[in-house]
């Protein structure tokens, strides 16, 4: 693949990021029955942590009956894939390496936050990567596999998702709403005093934006600006006549937390004025359950069609050294509840559990 065009001189993107993340909507957004929220602090009927040492998790349930799992490996050098018939089964499922970073040039460093989506009868993986020689020039890239089984066939490098600027960008997720496919991602806007904001665009094809791109959210509240000024890792779920877009904010230590944007299902999603923003985090560290820095979530459903929240968190607050070098962000899952007003009830990150459901 050819090297991306060199970026023109721009304000420097704030340097060494404490590991960023990704999330993910699972293709078409079809409403399923809402479920009651688990009581705060009560262990969910799942094994937690579900997958150790895997951050930025993305789980999708496909029509073949399998759950597919991918996530950031702490070495930042490869894309991995698992599948299982149950969510708990992902914990012990065989893990395959389906792609490795390049030795030199583009996609040679910081392989972050992969998401796998099914679009037009093919598999696509969106992920962040940087050139081996410029490891902080991180951009969004796309792989494609035409084989029905993503563990087989050939993963073709479709190239970089080109946005309005050649700046720090990552955490792409794709979803459809009323027949239109969108891409949401995080990117640094030249001249803005932040690390990343959230952006949205319609798509021409699975690796090309149709444009224009619009900014949906920028870090503005104190809880979004601890350590770094970050909005990233978007994921979308459509329920109860609305679209809910979660995202993660602040540095990726115990300050990492999740925010929420909401739009009416009938609204023009490309008009930022149609998205409202929660003034407080909807999911954050919890001393009682011993979970810290929950974020970079996605949504899936259990075998009964009930909503499940997928995210990563650490089991301790204090980190020795740079959080980027700490490998212990583990994938976790729990029931996603719904309030009487139709909005999501995230509760708190559940405590570690050894209970298992068949």
TrEMBL record:
Residues 1-38 form the signal peptide. SUPFAM superfamilies: Arabinanase/levansucrase/invertase. The active site is at residues 56, 232. One of its GO terms (molecular function) is hydrolase activity, hydrolyzing O-glycosyl compounds. Pfam families: Glyco_hydro_43 (PF04616). InterPro entries: Alpha-L-arabinofuranosidase, Glyco_hydro_43, Glyco_hydro_beta-prop_sf, TAT_signal. Keywords: Glycosidase, Hydrolase, Signal. One of its GO terms (biological process) is carbohydrate metabolic process. Belongs to the glycosyl hydrolase 43 family. This is Alpha-N-arabinofuranosidase. It comes from Streptomyces mutabilis.
């Amino acid at each position: 693949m050819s090297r991306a065009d060199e970026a023109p001189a721009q304000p420097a993107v704030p340097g060494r990021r404490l590991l960023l993340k990704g999330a993910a909507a699972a293709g078409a957004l079809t409403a399923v029955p809402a479920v009651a929220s688990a009581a705060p602090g009560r262990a969910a009927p799942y094994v937690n942590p579900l997958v150790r040492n895997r951050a930025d998790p993305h789980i999708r349930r496909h029509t073949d009956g399998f759950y597919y799992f991918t996530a950031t490996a702490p070495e930042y050098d490869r894309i991995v894939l698992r599948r299982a018939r149950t969510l708990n089964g992902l914990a012990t499922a065989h893990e395959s390496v389906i792609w490795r970073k390049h030795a030199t040039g583009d996609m040679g460093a910081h392989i972050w936050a992969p998401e796998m989506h099914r679009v037009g009868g093919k598999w696509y993986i969106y992920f962040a990567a940087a050139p081996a020689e410029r490891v902080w020039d991180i951009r969004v890239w796309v792989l494609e596999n035409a084989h029905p089984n993503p563990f087989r066939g050939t993963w073709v490098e479709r190239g970089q998702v080109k946005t309005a600027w050649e700046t720090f960008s990552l955490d792409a997720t794709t979803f459809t709403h009323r027949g239109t496919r969108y891409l949401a991602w995080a990117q640094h806007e030249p001249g803005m005093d932040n690390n990343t904001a959230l952006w949205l665009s319609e798509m021409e094809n699975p690796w090309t934006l149709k444009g224009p791109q619009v900014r949906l959210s920028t870090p503005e509240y104190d809880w979004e600006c601890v350590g770094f000024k970050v909005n990233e890792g978007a994921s979308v779920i459509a329920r109860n006549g609305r679209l809910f877009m979660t995202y993660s904010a602040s540095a990726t230590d115990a300050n990492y937390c999740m925010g929420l944007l909401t739009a009416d299902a009938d609204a023009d999603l490309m008009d930022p004025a149609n998205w409202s923003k929660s003034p407080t985090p909807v999911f954050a560290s919890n001393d009682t359950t011993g979970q810290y820095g929950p974020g970079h979530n996605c949504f899936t459903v259990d075998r009964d069609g009930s909503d499940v929240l997928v995210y990563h968190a650490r089991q301790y607050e204090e980190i020795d050294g740079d959080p980027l070098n700490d490998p212990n962000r583990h994938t976790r899952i729990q029931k996603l509840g719904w309030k009487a007003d139709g909005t999501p009830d995230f509760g708190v990150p559940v405590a570690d559990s050894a209970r298992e459901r068949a």
